[in-house]
Every structure is written in structure tokens, then in C-alpha cells.
Amino acid sequence: MTDIVIIGAGVAGMAAAEHLSAAGYSPRLVDKAARPGGRCATRRVAADRDADWFDYGAQYFTVRDDGFRALVDADLRAGRLVHWSPAIASAERVAGTWLLTPSPDDRERLIGPHGLNVWVRQRLQAAGLDVATERHVRRVVAEGKRWRVEYADGTAESADVVVCTPPAVQTAALLGPRAAGIDALAHPDAALAACHSVVVRAPALAERQAIFFKSGRLSWVADNTHKAGRGGEHHLWTLHADATFSEAEVETPTAELADLLVSEFAAATAQRADDMEIVRTHRWRYARPGGGAPDADDLCWTDTAAGLAIAGDWLAGGRVEGAWLSGREAARRLIAAYALD
Ligand SMILES: Cc1cc2nc3c(=O)[nH]c(=O)nc-3n(C[C@H](O)[C@H](O)[C@H](O)COP(=O)(O)OP(=O)(O)OC[C@H]3O[C@@H](n4cnc5c(N)ncnc54)[C@H](O)[C@@H]3O)c2cc1C
């Protein structure tokens, strides 16, 4: 039986693992983080299971592909996903004044009832897929016809096939000299742009649960407490900085930028920044596709003869759905090539 290691247990790694597993393989998923999910990142404000939670990476996702639709419908039935229909505004600063107008964007939005990270973990569990967490891969090197996966703690394992799903820069680093011949990794730095993310406890807004920003330093803010279907005077808001601002300030710790971003949120919504309390700051070094992402039609990169695949949202136009399509396509190509030995 072909021996497969999947590096990264975000949505792309999950999709690859689910499809390989359904075809009879037993892939081993490893992730450097303390838990799976990658950029589907959720935290609770306290340890108890009923504590308020917030998504500080992906906020919701949309569906276009029929296969992904089938997964979404099954997860809606299973209660692993729910619809989220916020009242969304567009914010624009005109002549020094913020103007908020209702957004006509009422597309279908999917969220996890306990956050998107929980959705990924529930799917992995339902498929019986174990993830070895806190397993930081340092290098992937050819060893005869197999691959040697070396970990930062000095241990190693070998595999017939390796599927890499970290962001482009990290995948290029793992592959070292082998990355040089791979088109998809020609411009790894430009594949994904940064995003500074701040979560604040702030007053609920009567008629708005999310805002797209057309100007200024923010790109998006969303009310997590509304997502969770909870009430109360103060809600947990996620603020995401704009990609241009985030890239320009990529080396500045998010904590140093948080007051600026909170002030902008307060100004745009006619509130007082003093009424807002910062709960968490996070810099996503690789958040969403940048100008130099590879052609999204390819979905993934594979060299089935060598037993190497690369998947991830940055190869498939970004977003949760792109990550899933990329992981599924990598698995399909591997399954077709090895025809289940
Ligand atoms: C701020 C922000 C907002 C977003 N908003 C949305 C949104 O609203 N809607 C939407 O659809 N998408 C959104 N996205 C994008 C979405 O989160 C991603 O497209 C998707 O989660 C990417 O999945 P992935 O599996 O390709 O990569 P990742 O989720 O990045 O998974 C890669 C995994 O690899 C692991 N890893 C990396 N290096 C190593 C190593 N050396 N060893 C072991 N493991 C390693 C990481 O820990 C990670 O778990 C957003 C992303 C961010 C950051």
C-alpha cells in the first residue's frame, strides 16, 4: 500500500486526506500547530465550552463547485455548518466623513456553529482521520524512490508520497533545491498577501453585523456574537486590515497597529474607541492570494512519478472552497496514478 504523508491539516490537507482515505489509503496528516484547521482559526475567550468564540482567520465561506455543494449540504444536515445572513454595510470615507450604505451582497454564507476551526476538526474526526499536531516539518528530501520527512525535533519518517499544503513560501522552504524546478513555486513570496487581524469587544450595532471597507486601513469587520446567535450589549468583533496596509506594515507587530485599526472601526461606526477592548491580535503573514498567485485553473501541482503533490488555496484562487478543490484535485491525481496498489 502506498504510504502517504500530508503536511498541513488545513482545509486543503483535510480534503486530500478525506479523498485518499475514501479511496482506501491511510494518509498520515501532520501539522506544526497545536490543532488542525490552519487559517480556519477560532478561539474561545475562556476555557469553558460555552464561552464566547471568534473566528480570526477565515470568516465564512461560499460555494460554487457541485462537489463542494454536496459536502456543504451534508454538513448542513449534520449540523456541522449553518447559514449566516448578516446585515452587511459598505463603508467609504468621502471628504473626511465615513459613509455607510447597505451592501446588496446577500450571497449564501456558511459558518461553523462553533466557529470554522471546529468545522474542520469535526470533519477530520468524522472521517476517522488522526492528525499528529505539533509536528513541525523542517525538510522533505528525496531518498531513493521515497521521501524522507524530517521534523524540527530531529525525528524523521519516510513515505512513498508527500502532499505539501502549507503556503507557498513555507512549501518552497520545505522542498529546498527541489522547489527550483517547480513552476507553481516560481514566485512564492507573491502567492499570498498578509493580513493584520484584531478582535475587540465592542458595542453591538443595531442594524449591522458586518462591514466591507472600500477605503482606509480596514477591509472587513464582523460580529462574531451575532454569528453565534447570542445577544448582549457588547459583542466580539473581528477587524481585518486591508491587504495593501498589511503588506506595507508586515514587519510591525499587530499589537502596535491595533489602536489604529480600532480607532478606524470606531470612527466608521460613530462609536468611541474607549468603549472597545482589544481581545486578541494576530498577524497572518500569508493570508489571501496576492498578485503573484499561480494560475487558479491548475488547482494543484503534482509529479505523480516522483510521488510529490502541492496543494493549497493559493493554487486555486484562494478561499476555503479553493483550498478544498485543490486538496481534492491532488488526491484525485494521486489515486488515478497509483490506481490503489
Ligand atoms: C484573515 C483571513 C481572512 C480570510 N477570510 C476568508 C473568508 O472570509 N472566506 C474564505 O473562503 N476564505 C477566507 N480566508 C482564506 C482561507 O482561510 C484559506 O483559503 C484556507 O483556510 C486555506 O486552507 P489551506 O489548507 O490551503 O491552508 P492553511 O489553512 O494555511 O493550512 C496549512 C497548514 O499547514 C501547516 N504547516 C505550515 N508549515 C508547516 C510545517 N513546516 N510543518 C507542518 N505543518 C505546517 C499550518 O499549520 C496549517 O495548518 C481568510 C484567510 C485569512 C488569513
Description of the structure:
The chain has helices at residues 11-22, 66-78, 116-126, 168-175, 224-227, 243-248, 254-268, 319-338, and strands at 4-7, 28-30, 42-44, 53-55, 82-83, 88-94, 97-102, 110-111, 131-132, 137-143, 146-151, 156-159, 161-164, 192-203, 210-213, 218-223, 234-241, 277-289, 301-303, 308-310. With 341 residues, the chain is of the alpha/beta class. A 7-stranded mixed beta sheet has the order 7-6-15-16-17-14-18. Strands 9-2-1-13-20-19 form a 6-stranded mixed beta sheet, covered by helices on one side. A hairpin with a 4-residue loop joins strand 19 and strand 20. It is globular. Flavin-adenine dinucleotide binds at residues 7-13, 30-33, 38-40, 57-61, 136-137, 165-167, 170, 174, 195, 197, 240, 284, 287-288, 312-313, 318-320, 322-323.
Bound molecules: flavin-adenine dinucleotide
Secondary-structure-derived class: alpha/beta
Percentage beta strand: 25-35%
CATH architecture of the largest domain: Alpha-Beta Complex
| N to C succession of SSEs | EHEEEHEEEEHEEEEEHEEEHEHHEEEH
Uncertain spans: none
Cα separation of the termini: 6 Å
Secondary-structure blueprint:
Layout: E1 4-7, H1 11-22, E2 28-30, E3 42-44, E4 53-55, H2 66-78, E5 82-83, E6 88-94, E7 97-102, E8 110-111, H3 116-126, E9 131-132, E10 137-143, E11 146-151, E12 156-159, E13 161-164, H4 168-175, E14 192-203, E15 210-213, E16 218-223, H5 224-227, E17 234-241, H6 243-248, H7 254-268, E18 277-289, E19 301-303, E20 308-310, H8 319-338
Parallel strand pairs: 1-2, 1-13, 2-9, 6-15, 13-20
Antiparallel strand pairs: 3-4, 5-8, 6-7, 10-11, 11-12, 14-17, 14-18, 15-16, 16-17, 19-20
Helix pairs in contact: 1-8
Bound molecules: flavin-adenine dinucleotide.
